[in-house]
Design a protein that fits this description.
heterodimer, A: mainly alpha, 12 helices, 70% helix, globular, B: two-stranded antiparallel sheet, 4% strand
Amino acid sequence: MIPLAHQLLRLACWVLLAPLLPGIINQVKARVAGRRGPPVLQLYYDLARLWRKGVVVSTLASPAFVILPAVAWVSLLGAALLVPLGPAGAALSFHGDVLLMLYLLALGRFCTAWAAMETGSAFEGMGVVREVSYAVLSEAAIVAAVLALCVQTGSVSMVTMLAPTAGAGVVLLGTGLFIVLLAENCRVPFDDPTTHLELTMIHEVMVLDHSGPPLAVILHGASMKLLLFSLLLTQAIVPLAQHGPIAATGLLAGGVLAVTLAVGIVESLLARFAYRRVPLLLTTAFLLCLFALLVAWKGGAS
Amino acid sequence: MTGPLLVLAVLLFGTAVVVGQHWPRPWLVLTLAACLASIGAALSVFAAAVGWEWKSHILLGGESLHLRLDGVSALFMVLAAVVGGAGAVYSCEYWSDRHYPESAPRGRSWWSALVLSMVLVLIVSNGLHFLMAWEAFAICGYFLITLENQKPAVRSAGWLYLASSHAGTVCLFGFFTLLAVKTGTWDLGPLREHASLSPLFWLALAGFGMKAGIFPLHIWLPSAHANAPSHVSAILSAVAIKMGVYGIVRFSGWLPMPASAGWVVIGLGATSALLGVAFTLAQNDFKRLLAYCSVENIGIILVGLGAALLARSHGDAPWGRLALAGALLHVWNHGAFKALLFFGAGSVLHATGTREMSRLGGLWRTMPWTAGLFALGSVAVTGLPPLNGFVSEWILYLGLFDAVTDKQAAAWAALPVIILLAMSGALALVAFTKAGSMIFLGAARTKPAAQAHECGLWMRAPMLLLASLCIVLGLAPIFVWPAISRAADAWSLTWAGQTAPAPLLTLGWVHLGLAALIIAAAALLWKKARSRPIRRAPTWDCGYAAPTAKMQYSSGSFANLATAWFFWILRPSRTWRRPHGSFPAEALLLDRVPETVLEQAVLPLAARIMQVSSAVRRLQHGRLSAYILYVVAGLAGLAVLVLLESAS
């Protein structure tokens, strides 16, 4: 029974804590701008409200329009359960789990994109195209980062890949992954999660036509994705295995908080990029991860 | 057991060729029975400890008959039989006597002949007989592609196929003849100890690569796949091009390899994967799109084979075995989902009469089965969990990652290839989001699209079979692992007996869990959404209510962003007529993506050769006086040569 309780606790962690991060980011943005801002728990209220609401579906959309957000949510949850939580490890760990995680994220993207295309809206089509096309570059960057960690540790399983000391390329890797985090979670400077009517948006535009419980599922999934990337980034650059379980947990939580604060500060200080410059920034992230890979390779060879 | 089943299969196929001319139903029964017999023969090889071999004294073309069925050929035989059977059922409705009274009987006979000749290619073990079977296979393919031979586009596609196919066969003639000269016999088999044979591999790679559609040699593939009837496209893409892969796998296992073979094959594979998917992305014709996607998948398979070759030259490293197993499993997987997608494409074509995605849209309403099955195929072809495409790509990735952690020279191949594969996977997602959504989602863009109809049971049943194969191979890969292992063992004898290192059982359970969770979550959300009546309203779209169907994102605009990165190879041509004046009447924008290698390299070269040839031909005009002048001039020239020679 203990392992089961353990897994349920882990599940609860992911499901219940994830919506906290967007609240923290919004709070940071408000404070930097000198406002009071919405409560940190705002997303919880929003989710509860949406879950109780009815659904409006486009006349063009098929039943899959309602179902696909659930599939996307499950794939994000599956990816999340594969990510180790510091000393607590992952729900399931095996040789090559990191690839499964990457492809589960892709499955989530695929489902969101199909659901958006259901509406036949050119606006949403535009968002889909940007989302899936930029994902090519961010995928390359993530894979380069994974290869760097893999060369560093000689392992293809996340629990062992993320545990030991970060190599010499930690700054490169951290910066690259942080840029990917911003792009994949649709934060400034790639996308602006607060607007709805800008032609430069990517992700938000894909979910314009969703409403009620499906929208709640999408928003919750997005917050899990943010938590997932923050955890990955933290564990990739902080050598948690050198510390005891309690200190490591503390460090992990601190790291996630720091990443969240950094996202908030970046959003307060930067404007959104013109969308033509987005590939350039993502290519930079890819190159940073590639250099981290080369550094790891040289480090391992000497 | 294997021998009698094979004889039965060959006899049944042979009878089906004759029967197909007149009696559709008995033909179907015979073909299906023959396919089952072939599958049975292949399974009996998987079950037995060693492969099946039979040498007889029957002479054919002066050579005694030598048949062999081992793990590698059995693997391809299962694929040929499954797709051959499914396509036969599909063609009963898709290419029926009622719609095509003239070509349907021919189509049935050539179909059985094609599957028969592929089975023969797989079992003969004599160079001369291999060439005969190979030629028969190529010709059957030609007659199937040109079933609709009243259309010029079909005829020219068939001609291109035949020409390219024979260019490849020329290489194979050279390959088998030189092999026979050097070894003193036409008999084929493991010849690893003859080190002097290794350069012959390049000939085999070129000859079989032409059939497989490796990137610069793929020129025949898009037009043949697009213009052939869809069940023929399915077997071309799922099985026929795999025969090229079979040749490369077979002879790279049997012959000694040049030292650089692994590097070249993995490089070609990565190039085909990335450029194949770039062309996939840019297509507007959905059958051409699927054809280019085959180039990509052949690239993925070759990456695995190249890694295996590298591993063999690195002291038989275990990661090579893993990569090869991934590649071989991908042969099956690609066969299943690509045939499914081509069948789906066929039923769309059947219902709407157009292959252009920018004329379709909203078909899910009238064709829910096809839409659902095409979506499933798209998930599989994109390599997403929990379906079969992911399983083989994952095993292949594991092999490559292990090569990286091994930190030998091969890691320098594995590192860039992993990144390229990941990018081509992401690009495939773009391409299939585009294909699925342009065809099936949104509003119908034209009248035929609005008036489409669902395909009948005969077309749906084979699609359901292939879809369930995609699901089973995805959820329970452990069941096919023994067969894949056996094939990998048969490839290289030194690898026999090693255990499977891949944690496939874990992956299978994860996939099962994932599938269960997806169903549960989808059911829950559906129930929750339905708990109050769902309100239907026009697409909100930030306030632009009810735009026309033409204002939807089109296939060109969808691919615009990502194809811009491949401008250097795609070289799209654009025809513009901008709107003019205060009351613009009409405007035009036509984008066309050429088959770059064919239109910008092969055709100009061919035109140049024709120019030179016709210039030379002017010498031959039939005027006797001039011919006498040639003779005199030639003699004079020779005399001058002789004089110069004696003077020096």
